[in-house]
Amino acid sequence: MKAKPDSIIQTTAMRGFKGKIKALFYIAAALTYSLLPKKLVQGLDLSKVTPHTLPNHAQQIPTIFVHGFRGGLTTTEKMVESAIEFTHQADFLRVIVDWRGRIRYQGTWTDNDNPIVQIIFEENIASMRMHSRWLELVLPTLKKRFGFVKFNAVGHSVGATALLNCLLENHDDPKFPTLNKVILVAGPFNGVIALGDIPNLNPLTVSGRPLLMNPHYLYWFFHKKDFPKNAKVLNIYGNTDTGFNSDKYITVNSAKSVNYLLRDTAAVYHEIEVHGLDGEHSVMHDNPKVLFIINNFLFNDAVVTEAVSETPLLNETSVN
């Protein structure tokens, strides 16, 4: 049998060697992936987010929407849809946070001046402070990933109180973006009916402070000077006009009590009381009148007290 030339033997050996190297590379890569912390492996679902490599997002001011207790995708769905339509955008980014604080993305961070971001907490029956902690993870992560400096926020119910708590506790953290505007909708700032509050039994003093303060409110009271000084605030709350002075779950006084906390620190503070069926707690986040008010405040810097309706939305108050 004729022997193969040395060159052929060397080439064959080299191919075999390269094949082994390639196989080892893939094995090493797989092992490396399997050994990564779960937070890194599972926390970012890149397959569901449109990648962006724009050189600078610093001028963008995104708006984040935060749902409340037992809320979810549908809670802020109408808010998100109306904001997209109002700003003529084609898509939005959904940020989903699981109970461990792991984050994954769906949708698109748009090139618009005001990208829309919907935040969803999978563990939607967690406490206000837990929601606040998750926001502490989301906001710096979004800032680092997309490069913006300022942001707007809209919170409904416990989402409003979680936003307030997060803003007060992280006011001096450079990793956080700077608050530009915040809209608080139906916020239970001094308790929920039957859970620390009773209709018509805890009046506001002449100064606007609740006669009785629950632990959360008392904590915010001692930290109220930490609220971002250049931020603009719009507080929207409901009154079904059934004699209980509430939106069915949150009393007017509980929702209004945030005025006392923020009015001296915020650059601008407005509040609007929505009456009748339009002012029911779970109706407000879908109500076209309320959505019109929200969008005009966010994107036109205007406070609208008479949305598209023959019935005015009464009791608008402006401070500063």
UniProtKB/TrEMBL annotation:
Pfam families: DUF915. The keyword Nucleotide-binding does not apply. Keywords: Hydrolase. GO terms for molecular function: hydrolase activity. The keyword Isomerase does not apply. It comes from the Bacteria. This is Alpha beta hydrolase superfamily protein. It comes from Agrilactobacillus composti DSM 18527 = JCM 14202. The lineage of its organism: Bacteria, Bacillati, Bacillota, Bacilli, Lactobacillales.
